# Entry
Amino acid sequence: MTHDSGDATGRHLLVTGGAGFLGGHIVDALLERGDAVTVLDRVGTAPREGAAFVAADLLETDISDLLAEGRFDGVFHLAGNVEVPLSVEHPDRDFTLNAGITIRVLEALRRASPRTRFLLASTAAIYGEAFDGACPESQPAAPVAPYGASKWIAECYTEAFAREFGLPTARARIFSMYGPQLRKHVVFDLIAKCHGRPERLEVLGDGEPVRDFIFVEDAVRALLCIADRSPHAGEAVNVARGVPVSVAELAGAVAAASGAEPDIVFVGMEGRGRSQRWVADIARLEALGHRSRVELSDGLARTVAWYRSEVADPS
# Structure
């Protein structure tokens, strides 16, 4: 898999939350293009070959010394909660993991490494119920779930540190991401159902919610593009394909990619905190030079192939 933003840098970069799904893909892409990478994560997994690894909990650890000694050119800040259900059940925990950790990292940068560029991995959930058209970055935040609210507060501090302290920051609002290694969320759940019961595919809700799905490879390329080319004056950039896909259409596409012809049944009971429509205006991302390459059908086929080899038959 090739990840290129167009800019080979040879820089030293820190990835917080780098042991997670998106973090692992970003670390691989950075190493592939020749950057030196340090992964910081509280999960004590082995680092990618070629990356340094720091085991630390950002809620308990002041990373000022690490930042001062590392002389990092940039930080990809991915650490935090990404689960809407957890935010609904424990909004205080969600706030701490998202807004609280982000403030701690920003403050450590301000004290120890104020020239280091900072990119926050945020979410389309800050928009809440977006309007009928494609949602621009200027759309006012109106989060539905606590998850979107905590991410919005993290964004506010990210922008404020740029304006007040001159810290070079940017915010990437990621829409519905999917791909190999992600063992949760709607695409993974639908693939698992198609393989477990290929004659009947039960889908939560009514099939009408609309999302803007982006394959992880394209999302990584977009994040590298923002990190390398955006002005870092506190700005936000949508990360998506700009293509609306209903959950009903997604279910049919997953079935086709899985080689199944199930009866698709919508069973209601959709989870709390879910918005009905997220489709991105990607003009700002495209102005930086990014173009998505992976169509939904191709991305689903590649995700199904991964599922079959590593989940359904890991031997």
